[in-house]
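Researcher: Can you fold this with ribulose-5-phosphate in place?
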Amino acid sequence: MLTQEELKQKVARAALDYVLPLLAPDVVIGIGTGSTANLFIDGLAAHKHLFKGAVSSSERSSARLTALGIHVFDLNQIDRVPVYIDGADEIDAGLNMIKGGGGALTREKIVASVADRFVCIVDESKLVPCLGKFPLPIEVIPMAIAEVSRRVARFGGTAALRQGFTTDNGCQILDVSGLRIESPAELEAQINNIAGVVTCGLFAIAGADVALLSTQQGVQTLY
Ligand code: 5RP
């Protein structure tokens, strides 16, 4: 029986195999945030001579990439990102996701939106029939915390301020529990439309293009 850590290592390796044929001297790849993305970064470092560099979804990932000798570009310097590799907190069979457990959801959504392909790398514990058991993170401008909390209560959720945490963008995170998300793209649009919300951690209007799912039986590819 493989542990969750071993499943993450296997999917990070599968992501590397997925990306290696895409690497070329002019290629910049998109890198996400979290423990699974970290394992991918560590594996990618051995191939740093094959590509130009990376754009990253967090200061943490940028620091890790830089420490391993992979050049990190400002996204404004880059006009093409062939692939974005990142984990998720939950994913369903339609490749809709909840992300932002690490608080990097906004930059993750920005880098993913630039990339030609979002490849989500997860262990099997993240695959769910319906999103919402994992509390939905929402990045909020600090002065709007109370009002956004009241608004999300109308969707049936209870918002809790993530204590002692400030995002890379100087904002705060509300973690919303108690949601059963039957229509993820619709809810994503509704929450993102609340004044003061930077973005919510639903990735459904644009979900993953591919998911690499690490199971006890091996890594499966979902489209
Ligand atoms: C960070 C994220 C991560 O992708 C998500 O939290 C999964 O993390 P991990 O790979 O550590 O389980 O969205 O904001």
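Model: Folded with ribulose-5-phosphate in place. The radius of gyration is 17 Å.
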